């Protein structure tokens, strides 16, 4: 009698001793990894662990310093460019978008397709695909006019249109709502059922447990373990990633709210472009010691509200925005910072930081017209420059920013470490009012905990904090009060104690009256 013996399927992708060095710094150190056909494989690690460097080598953005990549029974292959990766059957959705802002959605998609297809046909295919996956897009919209969440949808749809055997997703749900993420997970399960593979990078460990078959963990550029994430807990996965317990956020004992530090009264702002959202009669009050969490689906006016509160776009009515009782509606961002406010926009690269400048130069750029002289301690520029470098180093220490040199360019930092620096840059000024848009977008569990704790500590010291976030866990973890923005309108503000996911979901959908919750 003969017995059949089941053998494991041959890997679709194998990585052997893959190494990438930048000068004396080794970002990836002898990595071994197998991805099987029809599996969703998680790649885990804290910010700076080497995840993004690894997948950039797999997609032809970076050339390995050593090691080899084996593909689909072909043996070792050289992936010199993203186009070569796409020809093999590898698709990639980057955490930081590779989009041309002056082009339309359809034109951006066309640039990545290796086939001669008219823009009209691409637009129709993209529209149909995006609708079927619950990620609606307007192919004629210009990228410059879209929110971060809408830009992420372009990247996902663009990759799926290429019909890949392996799709690499780097933080794909970081700017998606729970409903949008559920639609994406349905799509990934269909891809898996079709025999396609997914390499999935996420700091949302509940997602990894929900959809991933296996997980490989990186730490300091090396593989430190592998597991079945469904047999783990979020805490045990986080411990594998960072090599230690991750501190949970600990809110301070609530004190009675203090003075009204930020007041918005009947703020209405017309849409600046055909694709932006108008703000309609928004009113809110945040007192000293309070953290107001604002939830909402991407593209419902969050960016426009942040711009109006920060002074990046002044508003017509000077009395519509008050800082500590003083009208600032027509003041710009520097004047508002001088009055004690701090701001962190959602997009790190190009908006919150200039990637080609050093951390100290970025600090000076943010402070030179909005600080009352901390860096003017000497008569000569050299003394001033040293003071800025010292301040940048202090911020890095306070926020545990991991970097490869004393004062690297901002673009050399991983996304989470750059975010920690940007948040720390504002916290260092101890602002009376802090407004943050997507504070922990794409950062690991340890970095997110540090950032959230820092905002809680700032409020406990008597500041007013506004957090605009699409991460509902974050909203519930740090907020003392919660509201939602939908189609440019702000709901009533409710104490966080009376809110839950169902209620906030209704508010995000535009139902602005919750009789079961008392207004704040």
Automatic annotation (TrEMBL):
GO molecular function, one term: ATP binding
Main location (coarse class): membrane
Matching PROSITE patterns: ABC_TRANSPORTER_1 (PS00211), ABC_TRANSPORTER_2 (PS50893)
Sorted UniProt keywords: ATP-binding, Cell membrane, Membrane, Nucleotide-binding, Repeat, Sugar transport, Translocase, Transport
Pfam families xref list: ABC_tran
One GO CC annotation: plasma membrane
Domain of life (superkingdom): Bacteria
Membrane topology recorded in Swiss-Prot or TrEMBL: Peripheral membrane protein
Subcellular location as annotated: Cell membrane
Ranges of residues in domain ABC transporter: 13-245, 264-512
UniProt cross-references to CDD domains, sorted A to Z: ABC_Carb_Monos_I (cd03216), ABC_Carb_Monos_II (cd03215)
Family in the record: Belongs to the ABC transporter superfamily.
PANTHER family: CARBOHYDRATE TRANSPORT ATP-BINDING PROTEIN MG119-RELATED, GUANOSINE IMPORT ATP-BINDING PROTEIN NUPO
Name of the protein in its database record: ABC transporter
Organism for this UniProt entry: Allorhizobium taibaishanense
Lineage per the UniProt record: Bacteria, Pseudomonadati, Pseudomonadota, Alphaproteobacteria, Hyphomicrobiales
